[in-house]
């Protein structure tokens, strides 16, 4: 049993003050952090419960939305503005976990949930993320769920979130507050690739609190979707997922957004697909070439070679669906 203190501050300033204590961690719905505490992977000395902070959704002057980080996944997915303006986000959220977990889980916690690599949870295994410098048992072990893009010899884990894949495609902004004041980060810059320091998963500074996410006004996102391919129809993490939006004008692709989940240490913005598609006439062949371009840098492991073809095909299927006017 590891003793820890528990506080539930009423505002962000008080939460940041509490989190300045050594070993403190913010607590959202606890659906990931408490599991990790039970497994002994996380041993916080203090839990600072942030579920009482901002959970509102407010309109921005330019037509975007600002979403308080304490909102539950369920409330965010159900919001009518989110459902109509950013359908890929609602679809991504409801593709994740179970209704009970989504009721508890917060937006801030979803962003910072840890990998589902089995060796990370097993303290008998070598894991550079859990214990830097110890090695990585996934490299030669069971690595069917692991990364095919952007991995390193130090870590081949994937980021497990569905919601984050949609935020990457939508060019969201993350609002942060800490001892040094407030700042904003493009969502794509929040999570890191593993490199030599897989224990550093984000660009957050110590004690920094995620206060809100902003979604830009993005009319093309009304024609967007999210598809998750997994081993079971529910309650399973993505083998591969695709969030995409497509804007076609006069028979030509004017703009496109694509992000992938289940393939890398962070939500993977498919910039190559996007660059290869802009200005093209939509067709399955064009989508196939673009997806092959993105996956040309894939480095599969012993058990996950199937993900390369699966990712290619899922990109083509989702873009074809959107081009056909089927959300
Ligand atoms: C059985 C099961 C199945 C699941 N399936 C899926 C799935 O298919 N897809 C999917 O996307 N997710 C899935 N999840 C994960 C789930 O979505 C996450 O556990 C959840 O989103 C985390 O949110 P939380 O509020 O409970 O975070 P917590 O567990 O409370 O916290 C997670 C991390 O975020 C930090 N944190 C929380 N809030 C803030 C903040 N505002 N600022 C800074 N740091 C913060 C905490 O310190 C902690 O490190 C599953 C979980 C379970 C248990
Ligand atoms: S893949 Fe990453 S999280 Fe998994 S065992 Fe290796 S270092 Fe740890």
TrEMBL record:
InterPro entries: CO_DH_flav_C (IPR005107), CO_DH_flav_C_dom_sf (IPR036683), Diverse_Substr_Oxidored (IPR051312), FAD-bd_PCMH (IPR016166), FAD-bd_PCMH-like_sf (IPR036318), FAD-bd_PCMH_sub1 (IPR016167), FAD-bd_PCMH_sub2 (IPR016169), Mopterin_DH_FAD-bd (IPR002346). It comes from the Bacteria. The keyword Cell wall biogenesis/degradation does not apply. The keyword Flavoprotein applies. Keywords: FAD, Flavoprotein. One of its GO terms (molecular function) is FAD binding. Residues 1-220 form the FAD-binding PCMH-type domain. This is Oxidoreductase.
């Amino acid at each position: 049993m590891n003793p820890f203190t528990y506080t539930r501050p009423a505002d962000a300033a008080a939460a940041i003050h509490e989190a300045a204590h050594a070993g403190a961690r913010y607590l959202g719905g606890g659906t990931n952090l408490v599991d990790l505490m039970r497994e002994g992977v996380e041993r916080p000395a203090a839990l600072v419960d942030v579920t009482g902070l901002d959970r509102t959704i407010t309109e921005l002057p330019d037509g975007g939305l600002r979403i308080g980080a304490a909102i539950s996944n369920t409330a965010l997915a159900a919001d009518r503005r989110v459902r109509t303006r950013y359908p890929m986000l609602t679809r991504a959220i409801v593709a994740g976990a179970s209704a009970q977990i989504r009721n508890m889980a917060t937006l801030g916690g979803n962003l910072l949930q840890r990998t589902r690599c089995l060796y990370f949870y097993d303290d008998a295994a070598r894991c550079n993320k859990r214990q830097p410098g110890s090695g990585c048992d996934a490299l030669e072990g069971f690595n069917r769920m692991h990364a095919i893009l952007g991995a390193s010899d130090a870590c081949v884990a994937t980021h497990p979130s569905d919601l984050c894949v949609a935020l990457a495609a939508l060019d969201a902004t993350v609002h942060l507050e800490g001892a040094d004041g407030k700042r904003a980060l493009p969502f794509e810059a929040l999570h890191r690739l593993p490199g030599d320091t897989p224990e550093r998963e984000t660009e957050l500074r110590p004690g920094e609190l995620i206060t809100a996410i902003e979604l830009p006004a993005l009319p093309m996102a009304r024609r967007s979707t999210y598809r998750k391919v997994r081993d079971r129809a529910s309650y399973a993490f993505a083998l591969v997922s695709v969030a995409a939006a497509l804007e076609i004008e006069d028979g030509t692709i004017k703009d496109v957004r694509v992000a992938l989940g289940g393939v890398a240490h962070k939500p993977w913005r498919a910039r190559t697909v996007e660059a290869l598609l802009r200005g093209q006439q939509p067709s399955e062949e064009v989508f196939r070439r673009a997806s092959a371009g993105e996956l040309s840098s894939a480095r599969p492991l012993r058990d996950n070679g199937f993900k390369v073809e699966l990712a290619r095909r899922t990109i083509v299927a989702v873009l074809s669906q959107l081009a056909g006017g089927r959300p």
